[in-house]
Amino acid sequence: MSDARFGDLGARLASAIVMIAVGAGALWAGGHVFAVLAIILAGLMGWELYRMMQPDAPQGRAEAHGVVAAVLVAVFSYTWGGAVSLAALLIGAGLLALRLPRDRVLFGAYLALVVVAAHGLIVLRQDFGLIWVLWLVLIVIASDVAGYFAGRLVGGPKFWPRISPKKTWSGTVAGWLLAGVVGAGFAQVTGAGSGVILLSVLLAFAGQMGDIMESAIKRRTGVKDSSALIPGHGGVLDRFDALIAVAALAYLAALAGVLGALVGAGAA
Questions:
Q1: Dihedral, 245, 251, 253, 257 alpha carbons, nearest 10
Q2: Which of 160, 181, 214, 220 has the maximal Cβ count within 10 Å?
């Protein structure tokens, strides 16, 4: 077995330990502490996204877009709620995209995903509690870990080589399977039933698509990483691209009543 396949594992693990410590502490604390972390991450992602897609923009423009993204999440996570806040976030992302000279649709769509996901995490932590946000995080971790090791140990055909040349079918399917195991564990602990398993697999797939969408943006813009903020992982978007897709889908499931039905089954 070649060590080259795991050359970045040390840096990835060290960064992951720090991120887990910060994230776990905020998740445990909940309330304003967790909300502040989600708002900060939304701002950093907005900054990275603008830098990638508009590298020749005047200095300070990317920072301004990051601040606006954070403000959107902060404002509409503490006012109204539900479909009204969702609509406001989508409109806000769309208005920011209109100011771009190019790639407006792509920028607007991905920024909308970012702000909806950050808002969704805040709402899910508040309305459903720690255990169900932990479930989302573990789905992302399980899918990422399974994909990383299965892709390198098993290899095989590529999932979408034109967009994400490193992602394999073996890693993708392994991610679904391990996410299903996470769902089964939560179904057992919460008594929520087998629906959690299916939703876990769907969320893992959404996370993988989030990863691929960010890869497509990077290939379009010709950058390797969204930034260099996190050693071994690149930028915030590089590390949390899957989580934002998972959180956004879970939030939509909550708005549709699906997640509430699962939680209610566990509480019954």
A1: 180
A2: 214
Residue with tokens 């972390």: 37
Q: Which residue do the tokens 């590089």 mark?
A: 238
Tell me: pLDDT of 10 over 90.
Answer: no
Beta-bridged to residue 88, according to DSSP, are none
Task: Compute the distance between CA of residue 262 and CA of residue 199 in angstroms, rounded to an integer.
Answer: 10
Cα(126)–Cα(266) distance, integer angstroms: 18
CA–CA gap between residue 55 and residue 83 (Å, rounded):
34
Question: Is residue 70 within 8 Å of residue 40, measured between CB atoms?
Answer: yes
What's the distance, CA 159 to chain centroid? 20
pLDDT band at 2 (very low <50, low <70, confident <90, very high): very low
Q: What is the span of the domain harbouring residue 202?
A: 3-267
What's the token pair of residue 85? 């806040």
Total domain count, the chain: 1
CA distance linking residue 94 with residue 111, whole number of Å? 8
- 18 token code pair: 């720090």
SS3 164: strand
Q: What is the pTM of this model?
A: 0.91
Q: For residue 57, what are its two tokens?
A: 């923009």
Q: For residues 204 and 231, what is the distance between their CA atoms, to the nearest angstrom?
A: 24
The pLDDT of residue 1 is above 50: no
Other CB atoms within 10 Å distance of the CB of residue 1: 7
Strand spans (E) along the chain: 158-160, 164-168
Which residues have a Cβ under 8 Å from the Cβ of 137 and sit 6 or more positions away?
23, 27, 243
CB 243 within 8 A of CB 136: yes
The residue among 111 and 160 whose pLDDT is bigger is 111
